[in-house]
Amino acid sequence: MTESSLSKPEIEFPEGPAPTELQIVDVVEGSGEEALASSTVNVHYLGVEFESGEEFDSSWGRGESINFPLRSLIQGWQVGIPGMKVGGRRKLIVPPAQAYGAAGAHPLAGKTLIFVIDLLGVS
Fold first, then answer.
1. Cβ-based neighbour number of residue 42 at 10 Å
2. Burial tier of 103 (Cβ tally within 10 Å: 0-12, 13-18, 19+)
3. Can you give the pLDDT at residue 1?
4. Locate the PPIase FKBP-type domain: which residues (predicted)?
């Protein structure tokens, strides 16, 4: 496992309306192995709600990175992480259709979400 040399990100409050399409922004370009759609990724991440700017989840807050098979994650991550390289930091702005769907059972349903993801490893 590789620890990120990057510290917990700060997300600036977005201006304007929430995007209706997935937004992918490389904050730091990685130089390691590339994540594929079939990869299991080791990441540090921070998630905030677009509208309120409130943090809803953070691996930084738990003090440890996490491993996920990409195919088990929300569509915004399944589309937004492949092509990213280890050592990189990427910001994803994920509309509800690619997150937790329209308003419903999940507390984040109907919300546009912003994630900042540090890719620490792939397998």
1. 22
2. exposed
3. 37
4. 38-123
